[in-house]
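User: Just a sanity check before I run the rest of the batch. Below are the structure tokens for the first item. I only need the designed sequence back.
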């Protein structure tokens, strides 16, 4: 009867498991001043946002890209909003397939930043709810203790550290349901929950789901070893078949993504198997991550594995508890050791992260360790009565060893409070378990209090850390203003297919954020061909191998890559070849006089062009332009300094200094009390517009022409170009750098003059044989071109693009390893460029086949009767943890053992009591 009443109360506990994280999250937002709260008065004064670092530079713009595609009916397969065009399906599978992103749709774009904060709270609530459901159905009980452990899962160290990494949270939510589905598959031969949950995880984020798939294999093996009475042959068959079906259901995503990943750097040269075993951290480093108040880690440090002091205390008690069989202790202990070992060495790190090393965010799978530890702790608390006084002392000793081992890695100001908290909790738990009655309620209250305190305590230290939150970054007001500029510009700019850019880029995926065709891109699915192409042309890089940043100072790049407009919201000297198109309120639009169309006739030998990495960026651009024209034009002329005078610094290569990129030049400050100075001296030999590209950081860079200081700028990553202006042949120029703020930095300077008149002459020749665009969508472009020859396009030459000329498919070629080209043999041509996602058709066929097989199984599968279910359960240890229940079709549960009521715990029963235990 008591279990029946617990069933009646289940919705209340589910509601608590869902609501508590939201309340805690709101308290955290209030404490940190995150929107909608503010630390001070005023709408935006002192207000913070979670949208910082990669969440602002990558994830949020990608959310907006998906948002716009769904609302505007855009293509889910291809986007022009970065990198000249890219496979947006692969990007979405990595970043934005979360069903939570559908919650953005009812809101206007300017509200999406605010909405994101609430969706984050919702995800924490769902993490708690799914873990609550898992515990409820695994152990057949639900009460405040269940809610407390669910809260601990939702606010574990992993989730707190990755609060601004939303791509991982969906799998954290789904992992308990997948694990529950696996248990139903093993013990009840019911596969639907397992198949559905695993498919949902793979679809939401295939990358993190990969580690979940590994965990299901390990958990399956551990369960077979730990539990008696399982039909191993049937379990193995079911696990293999239904895991395969779950993966096959997602084939429509997995196959296209796998094909796309082959072209990324991570999917090719960076995926070399480690040659030897290297241990990255010591055991004491991991002890510290089990303590409350530990600092979060996002880079190459110890993964975030904190799950609460209660779980830390319960772990040794599990192995001392006489209630659990030796085989279960060995199985569970082996998995714990294996997972800990997997965090500590290079080979397993490589394996768990999809056969490559992750970029900074280490231990992306360690939430699974937390799930397993909390599961063990919960089961231990349910069976705490079987612990003796002597075993409590042993456990106390183990916990103090862990605290002592972690001492050197803990924040000193929290060390005392951590030690006190551990002592208090252990003493209280021991006392109540021996002399009082309602232990579970006490443990639940302690755990809930710990979760609240640790969450606030942890974020107190990271409150001003830009990796997590920051004041007005990005400024909410600025985002709204730029969004207004872009909306107004959209009504002003002409129709047609062309590319544009924003200055400055504002985020690393501004094209996706503001829905325009551009170049700037930052994402892990960036192809190596795109990265190499843009880097060879001299475009800047934010993160190696996966990013490119547009700069307006390259006229050859602007023309050949179809950049027609620059929308400028900062102070920008009009770039070469541009003129003012529109002067708006606080922003301007510049138009490129020399922009080339999407497609035109180029020299027939252009496809033979390859970049020479030994040349400077200006020389590389010259070479590409020469190849397209078919003549030695060289719009850029680069000057070498007649003299370089260095003060208070030693110059050398990265190899000499054993630091940085080994082929680059650096300066090392010699006297820390003096300023570093560098003078580059030139005498120019031709008239023209001059510019300098420098690598100097954290200093001032000035221009002295014929003894007169004409300009000074602060040199940093955001101002790599120095517009010198128009110079006459014979002028003496000194580029003067000085710095007090850096001791070791890059050392480079390229001075070039651009011959605009010569450039314009040949650009106009190319325009004479341009294609006329008849229609253009995301995946199909129709053009007409009345000329034979090699057609150059600024369309990426990636798998999926097909070319038809006058109804016949023609072979495509590449220019510079990245740009699509093809030959025309007729004088009048109708050209169709069509994109089809590679691998999608075969993926759909496999997915549909798997779905039909699953439906056939459901139709053909016999329904288990209550008697059959009881027989299955009675043959396993799982029956003990499930009360050896009988389930009827009405879903009412009757626990016959409760009728023999042991009232020791004030109205609660242990889920794992057996008849022999009661005797």
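Assistant: Here's the designed sequence for the first item:
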């Amino acid at each position: 009867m008591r279990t029946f009443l617990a069933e009646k109360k289940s919705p209340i506990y589910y509601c608590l498991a869902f609501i508590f994280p939201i309340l805690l999250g709101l308290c955290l937002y209030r404490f940190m001043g995150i929107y909608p709260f503010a630390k001070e008065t005023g709408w935006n004064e002192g207000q913070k946002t979670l949208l910082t670092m990669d969440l602002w530079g990558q994830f949020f713009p990608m959310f907006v890209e998906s948002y716009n595609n769904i609302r505007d009916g855009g293509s889910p397969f291809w986007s022009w909003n970065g990198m000249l065009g890219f496979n947006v399906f692969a990007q979405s599978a990595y970043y934005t397939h979360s069903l939570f992103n559908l919650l953005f749709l009812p809101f206007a774009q300017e509200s999406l930043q605010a909405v994101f904060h609430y969706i984050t709270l919702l995800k924490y609530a769902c993490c708690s709810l799914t873990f609550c459901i898992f515990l409820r159905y695994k152990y057949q009980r639900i009460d405040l203790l269940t809610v407390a452990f669910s809260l601990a899962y939702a606010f574990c160290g992993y989730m707190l550290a990755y609060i601004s990494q939303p791509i991982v949270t969906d799998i954290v939510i789904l992992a308990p349901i997948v694990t529950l589905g696996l248990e139903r598959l093993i013990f009840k031969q019911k596969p639907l929950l397992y198949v559905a949950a695993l498919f949902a995880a793979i679809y939401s984020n295939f990358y993190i789901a990969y580690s979940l798939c590994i965990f299901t294999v390990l958990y399956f093996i551990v369960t077979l070893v730990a539990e008696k009475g399982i039909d191993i042959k049937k379990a193995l068959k079911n696990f293999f078949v239904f895991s395969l079906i779950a993966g096959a259901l997602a084939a429509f995503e997995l196959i296209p993504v796998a094909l796309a990943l082959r072209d990324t750097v991570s999917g090719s040269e960076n995926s070399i198997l480690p040659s030897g075993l290297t241990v990255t951290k010591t055991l004491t480093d991991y002890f510290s991550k089990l303590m409350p108040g530990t600092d979060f880690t996002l880079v190459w440090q110890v993964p975030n594995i904190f799950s609460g002091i209660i779980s830390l205390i319960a772990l040794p008690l599990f192995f001392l508890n006489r209630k659990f069989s030796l085989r279960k202790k060995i199985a569970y202990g082996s998995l714990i050791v294996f997972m800990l070992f997997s965090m500590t060495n290079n080979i397993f790190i490589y394996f768990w992260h999809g056969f490559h090393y992750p970029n900074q965010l280490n231990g992306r799978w360690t939430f699974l360790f937390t799930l397993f530890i909390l599961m063990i702790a919960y089961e231990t608390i349910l069976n705490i009565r079987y612990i003796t006084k002597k075993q409590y002392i042993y456990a106390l000793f183990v916990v103090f060893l862990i605290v002592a081992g972690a001492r050197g890695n803990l924040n000193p100001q929290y060390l005392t409070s951590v030690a006190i908290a551990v002592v208090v909790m252990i003493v209280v738990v021991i006392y109540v378990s021996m002399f009082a009655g309602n232990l579970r309620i006490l443990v639940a209250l302690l755990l809930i209090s710990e979760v609240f305190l640790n969450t606030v305590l942890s974020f107190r230290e990271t409150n001003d850390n830009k990796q997590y939150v920051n004041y007005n970054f990005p400024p909410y007001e600025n985002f709204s203003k730029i969004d207004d500029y872009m909306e107004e510009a959209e009504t002003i700019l002409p129709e047609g297919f062309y590319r544009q850019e924003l200055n400055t880029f504002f985020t690393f995926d501004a094209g996706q954020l503001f829905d325009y065709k551009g170049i700037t891109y930052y994402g892990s699915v960036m192809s190596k061909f795109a990265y190499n192409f843009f880097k060879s042309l001299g475009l800047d890089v934010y993160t190696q191998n996966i990013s490119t940043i547009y700069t307006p100072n390259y006229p050859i790049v602007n023309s050949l890559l179809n950049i027609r407009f620059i929308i400028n919201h900062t102070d920008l000297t009009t770039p070469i070849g541009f003129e003012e198109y529109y002067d708006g309120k606080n922003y301007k639009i510049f138009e490129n006089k020399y922009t080339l169309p999407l497609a035109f006739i180029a020299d027939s030998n252009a496809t033979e062009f390859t970049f020479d990495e030994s040349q400077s960026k200006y020389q590389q651009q010259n070479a590409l332009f020469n190849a397209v024209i078919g003549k030695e034009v060289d719009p850029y002329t680069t000057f070498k300094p007649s003299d370089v005078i260095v003060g208070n610094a030693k110059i050398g290569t990265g190899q000499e200094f054993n630091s940085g990129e080994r082929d680059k030049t650096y300066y090392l400050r010699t006297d820390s009390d003096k300023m570093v100075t560098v003078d580059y001296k030139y005498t120019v030999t031709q008239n023209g517009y001059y510019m300098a590209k420098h690598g100097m950081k954290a200093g001032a860079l000035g221009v002295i022409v014929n003894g007169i200081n004409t300009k000074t700028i602060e040199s940093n990553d955001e101002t790599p170009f120095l517009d010198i202006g128009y110079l006459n042949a014979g002028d003496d120029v000194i580029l003067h750098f000085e710095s007090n703020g850096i001791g070791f930095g890059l050392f480079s300077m390229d001075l070039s003059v651009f011959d605009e008149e010569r450039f314009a002459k040949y650009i106009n020749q190319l325009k004479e044989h341009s294609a006329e665009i008849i229609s253009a969508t995301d995946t199909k472009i129709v053009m007409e071109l009345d000329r034979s020859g090699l057609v150059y396009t600024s369309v990426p030459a990636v798998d999926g693009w097909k070319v038809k000329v006058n109804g016949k498919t023609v072979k495509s070629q590449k220019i510079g390893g990245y740009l699509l080209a093809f030959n025309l043999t007729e004088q009048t041509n109708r050209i169709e460029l069509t994109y089809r996602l590679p691998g999608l058709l075969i993926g759909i066929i496999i997915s549909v086949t798997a779905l039909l097989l699953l439906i056939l199984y459901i139709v053909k599968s016999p329904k288990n009767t209550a008697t059959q279910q009881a027989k299955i359960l009675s043959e396993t240890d799982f029956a003990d943890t499930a009360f050896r229940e009988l389930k009827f079709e009405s879903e009412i549960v009757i626990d016959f053992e409760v009728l023999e009521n042991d009232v020791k715990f004030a109205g609660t029963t242990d889920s794992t009591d057996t008849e022999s235990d009661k005797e």
